[in-house]
Amino acid sequence: MGFAQFSRGRSRLALAVLVCFLFISLSCAARLTASSRQKLDVQKHLNRLNKPAVKSIKSPDGDIIDCVHISQQPAFDHPYLKDHKIQMRPNYHPEGLFQGNKVAEKSKEKPNTQLWHVNGRCPEDTIPVRRTKKDDILRASSVKRYGRKKEKTIPKSADPDLANESGHQHAIAYVNGDKYFGAKATINVWEPKIQQPNEFSLSQLWILGGSFGEDLNSIEAGWQVSPDLYGDNNTRLFTYWTSDAYQATGCYNLLCSGFIQINSEIAMGASISPVSSYRTSQYDISILVWKDPKEGHWWMQFGNDYVLGYWPSFLFSYLADSASMIEWGGEVVNSQSDGRHTSTQMGSGRFPEEGFGKSSYFRNIQVVDSSNNLKAPKGLGTFTEQSNCYDVQTGSNGDWGHYFYYGGPGRNGNCP
Question: Structure pTM?
């Protein structure tokens, strides 16, 4: 090989090394830029969600509850709510609210509160907001998806195959075929075991309008255990809303603008305490959601004493008028991570036939009619995708009105 050829060879090698170095540098720079951008996005989102606090309370479960001035809450980030005058109380409560509310002798009447109350309360003119941490957002698939349901969740599909495809399973009671203006239930509270961090178990009521296509309107409230959302296995009070079948609108609790809270006592997304134990003490919570006949907003009440706030009617299309279906019951995510059905529990993790003290229940289930009266549901149906995994059984009596037991262990000998 001549000297010229040798020089050219070395030059090409040097050029290749340089190109390689530049490529690696650009690749590293791109990775660094992406990482920096994510950090920046997470920080911006935290700043948006965590409003300045008048006072902060450390809960025994590690949560920080910020007492945020009522006018500074996340709802007012919504462009349509910039000049909104907060309605501090509903114009009307449903008629018959405190009738038919007898508690069976065997059920505990001890009030259910939230864990953070142990260390303090928020002052008047503030609302309690569970502080979002960086890790909460990093557990989500993206900053944009944080606080939203990951996939379409279909409470009762006309097409059971579609419902199974979504990975969500239910054991519910429901009514449809009329116009509904609210729903109420007293819900037994448990702490179900979750197999995978990306799964959840919840018990709630659904107020639904539209079809189960891309235009579904839904208001939801109840309790849930969701390691992905909260970073632990605590049972927490939650709400959800959507006006487009969980695609781009709505979120859990106060994690987007929408729900306007007026109450200083109860924090959305905070732990409920105490919870029920097998064959011993049973605890439940009462939830009422109804449409104010005057303003048209959908209000939520927790227990007999706490009117929490409202979803403004403009958030919705179908629900701006009325609901066409009400559902009550349980839902879990079945990710089948090891190719088998999840062992995530629904309710207490026991089947309905085990009854009080063992199986989880909904009691005093009611709907609000067009005259703003609370009524027993007519033509109550039930639905579950796989009754050998999770099941539901309805009944009625003088103490509990219309009720049902529901739930199950998930994977078992009959549910492989």
Answer: 0.88
